[in-house]
Amino acid sequence: MVVQMHAVNFKADVKLKNFIEKRLQKLERFYGKIVEAEVFLKVENTKEKTNKVAEIKLVVPKGKLLVRKLSNSFEEATDKSVKALVRMVKKKKSARGF
Q: Looking at the chain, which runs of residues are DSSP E strands?
């Protein structure tokens, strides 16, 4: 799986990038034919603490899956996104969508 990361309006450190790649590798246990993962990290301009956004797009042979989660940190938002993607992949596999 090819992983592309885009940090919008800030520079993501190597530690964060490694964390995200490690989490995305878990998805291959559930579906091994993932072609590409594209991650967008953004900080929303709000006064609240929950302003970190992780948006993950998975490209699979028969389509795309997109998840967007908001949280206090990028790590937490990534974890929530990966959990949602796992549910989506399992649902698609059981419905024979893949």
A: 2-7, 36-43, 52-60, 63-71
